[in-house]
What we know:
This protein is an all-alpha fold and 330 residues long. Helices cover 68% and strands 2% of the residues. It contains 13 helices and two strands. It has helices at 2-11, 15-36, 48-70, 72-82, 92-106, 108-120, 122-128, 148-153, 168-205, 208-250, 263-280, 286-298, 306-309, and strands spanning 317-319, 325-328. A two-stranded antiparallel sheet has the order 1-2. The longest helix has 43 residues, at 208-250. It is elongated, with a radius of gyration of 33 Å.
Amino acid sequence: MERLKLVLQYFQSNSESISNGICIILALVSVKLYTSFDFNCPCLPQYNKLYSLGVMIVPPIILFFLGVLVNRHTGVMMDEWMRPTGNRSKNPAVVKYLFSAMLQRALLAPMVWILVTLLDGKIFICAFSGSVDPALFSGLPNSTGLEVIKIMAKVPCKEDVIFRNSSFRKAVSRYIRCYSQAVGWSILLLLIVLGAMGRLIKPYFDDHATGLQTRYWSNYLDVEQKLFDETCVLHARDFARKCVVQFFEDMREDAILRLPHPPFISNFQDEWEDEEEERLHGVTKQEQVDQLLNKWYYSKPELDVTRIAHRPRTCVTWKDRDGRTLYSDV
């Protein structure tokens, strides 16, 4: 249970971990879909290859676009690529990094589907049973009057009556499955070797400092968009509360019973209103909100926080009558 909590905390730690988790889930879903998929080869010479290639190619394409759709890097990359320059220049290296990260994660589930189909071998048998030379095997059921190509096309259909009490179909299926698994393991080995070589060779061709900068600013874009969305949600909530309260206050009758109340309630109300005003940031009209959002899109702020970082801070110091300091938060 503790390990499960650690795994969940890792996937919830940042957007990159969430994207990794989603891609792993999609890969597991692709395996589950294949194992639950009822594959029925048509066993006809003109349709076997077409059907098999469709099963091997169409689901990976769907999984690829699904991976692109659910990947957060896709939205961040497109926002950075399509936005106007404004006060902030674009960094092509960040866009390339985000595109590479998105592409790698989106390709995981399709590659898992293709590898599973190749290692299982059923689709390969359906596609290439008609291309095998029947002379390599004994026991060809030639007493049925069918053409050899039609007999070979029926190899994937083990329930067919022409292969009853015959080892021919099993021998051909085993032969093609061996080729299919060899291709699958070769692709898997090639991907692992390419990944390992890429990790080993990359430091010799890439500037490590530039890579750190690119990764930092790609993470910054993601965090910035999150914080902006969260701030917009808080502002919209407070804006809506103020609007509703103002509506009800306008609808009140002129005769209002006013009762005295303790001063601490007034102080508490003033503090609460000050906090709401601070959340509204002085943006109290629809035109101001539209102008703010328009400015955020067309003119992103420059990456310089010197002014707010060095803003003077109010300090409190208590002294007695003799001028001695009793408390100070300096």
